[in-house]
Amino acid sequence: MIFEDDAALEAHVAALLDATLPKARWTHAGHLAATAGLILLRPGMDAGQALPGLIRRLNESHGVPNSDTRGYHETITRFFLAAIRDALSKDDRTLPPHARVNALLAGPLGAGKRVMAPHWSEGVLFSPTARRGWVAPDLAPLPYAMGG
């Protein structure tokens, strides 16, 4: 997923906000881009507060249940929100938002949930408890602070 310009990123974020983002674009990269886009293009919105409801609503629009085994996952969402904030705090802020998001997608976070493997065992990460609420890493601490 590459964004040609800020308008393309804005369209992606808007489609998350109104639950019209096609399921084919609701991939790991789509999640990262939407989250980073919210942070960069909607600085007045509290992404930590908004994301759970936005993700659940989009999942439901795709017919994906938010259950103990599918759909919204609190620990993964909070991890990636913190990781994205950390990455954006260290990137080139002179670049336009779409270029910052493209760089984020091309970096380590773009590799998917594998970036979580050093910190959580599969059993803990994919438990219903971790899906429903924040569960701290059981293997190694995170390299940055967890925010809301």
What does this structure look like?
The protein is an all-alpha fold and 148 residues long. It has one domain (6-132). The chain is 52% helix and 0% strand. It has helices spanning 6-17, 28-41, 47-61, 74-90, 97-106, 122-125, 128-132. α2 packs antiparallel against α5. The model has no long low-confidence stretch (mean pLDDT 95).
Spans of 5+ residues with little confidence (pLDDT < 50)?
Answer: none
Apparent shape: globular
Average pLDDT taken over every residue: 95
Number of domains: 1
How many DSSP E strands? 0
Structural class: mainly alpha
Major sheet attributes: none
Strand content: under 5%
How big is the Rg?
15 Å
Task: Indicate the percent of residues in helices.
Answer: 40-55%
Q: What's the SSE pattern? A: HHHHHHH
By DSSP (H or I, 4+ residues per run), the number of helices equals 7
Note the gap between the termini. Answer: 26 Å
Mind sketching the topology for me?
Elements: H1 6-17, H2 28-41, H3 47-61, H4 74-90, H5 97-106, H6 122-125, H7 128-132
Summarize the structure.
52% of the residues lie in helices and 0% in strands.
